[in-house]
TrEMBL record:
Organism: Albidovulum sediminis
Pfam (any one): TOBE_2
Gene3D superfamilies found in the cross-reference section: P-loop containing nucleotide triphosphate hydrolases
Record has Nucleotide-binding as a keyword: yes
Molecular functions per Gene Ontology: ATP binding
Name this polypeptide is given: ABC transporter ATP-binding protein
SUPFAM superfamilies: MOP-like (SSF50331), P-loop containing nucleoside triphosphate hydrolases (SSF52540)
Keywords for the protein's UniProt record, in alphabetical order: ATP-binding, Nucleotide-binding, Transport
Amino acid sequence: MAEVRVEGLTKTYGTARALDAVTLAFPDGGFFGLLGPSGSGKTTLLRAIAGFVEPEAGRVLIGDAPVENVPVEAREIGMVFQSYALFPNMTVAQNVAFGLEVRKVPAAERARRVAEVLELVRLGPYGARKPHELSGGQRQRVAMARAIVTRPRVLLLDEPLSALDKALRVEMQIELKRIQREVGITTIFVTHDQEEALTLSDRIGILRDGRLVREGPPRAVYDDPRDAFTARFLGEANLFSGVLEPGGLRLGDGVLVAGARTATVAVRPENLRISLTEPPAPIRLRARLRQRIFAGAMGTCVLDWQGETLKAVGRDRDFADLPAEGEVWLSWDAADTIPLEG
Ligand SMILES: Nc1ncnc2c1ncn2[C@@H]1O[C@H](COP(=O)(O)OP(=O)(O)OP(=O)(O)O)[C@@H](O)[C@H]1O
C-alpha cells in the first residue's frame, strides 16, 4: 500500500490542456473519487499515474518515491477499465492467474492466491467457467480479481461499472467498497456518476478543464461547494442572484440573505420549501410553480423565479396539496444558504 501524490502535473495535447498543474495527494489505503465533466482530464490523470502518459511538467510519487523512471509494469499498479478485456478462451481462474504467471510466481502459490482472490470477489465456484458463461457483474468481478491478485500498491479504476445496468451497478458499488476495505488498497476511481463518487469515496477531487477545482471529503465539498460550478456539478443547486449590500444579499422581493459574499448564493433542491400560504421564514419569495413530477417516493417541483428555473425535491406527499401550477411561496432556512466565492 502506498500514498500516491501528483505535483504540478501538466499534459498538453495540441492546444488542449488535458492536465494543468494538478497537485493532489491520494491517501494511503483510501478510496479517492475523481469527478469532472467529459474531457476534464480524469482519464489522463489516471494514465499519467499508471505511466501510459508522460507529463511535460510535474511528477508522480508513489509511496514518496518519484516514478518517472519506473516503467508501467514495475509501478505495482492494478487497473480496471470499463472495457475490461478478459481473455475469452481462458477460464476465470486462468484469467486471474495470468499476471502471476508473468511474474513467475510458482504454480502452488499461484493456485492458492487465485482461489483466495476468487473467494474475495465471491466467485469461488466459478473458476472453471469461461467469461462468456458469466453475467456482466460477474465478469467485472473477474476483472477486479485480476487487478488485485498481484497485490499492487495502487488500484486505478476508470469507470469500471458504467457498462452495467443501474441495479447491478448499485450492487457492484457495495461489493467494490467491501473488497477495497478488505484489501485496504489505495484506490483512485474515475466516474461520471456523482452519486457513485459520493457513495464510495473517502475523498473526492473535481477536475475542470484540466485543473483541480476542489478536493476534500464528499460531505464537506457537497455542503460547502464554494463556487457555482462545484455546487451545480456535485448534486443540484438553485442559484439566486441579487444585489449585494452591507447587510447581505437583497433578492427580488426585498428579502435579505445574510452571510452572502457574492451576488449569487446557492440552495440545494431538498432545502427549498413550497407553500400556498405565506410562510413565517425570513427568507421567502414568490415563485411560479411550473410542473410537479412524480418519481416514486420522491417528487420534484419545477419553479420559475425571475426567469430562473428552480427545482425543489421532497417526499411526494409534501407536495400533495399544491396545484399543478400557479403562484406559490418559496422559502428556506438561513442555515441552508450556501454562500459562493467570487
Ligand atoms: N491521446 C490524446 N490525443 C489528443 N487529445 C487527447 C488525448 N487524450 C486526451 N485528449 C484530450 O485531453 C482532454 C482530457 O481528456 P480525458 O480523456 O483525460 O478527459 P476525461 O475527463 O477522462 O473525459 P471523459 O469523462 O469523457 O472520459 C480532452 O480534451 C481530450 O480530447
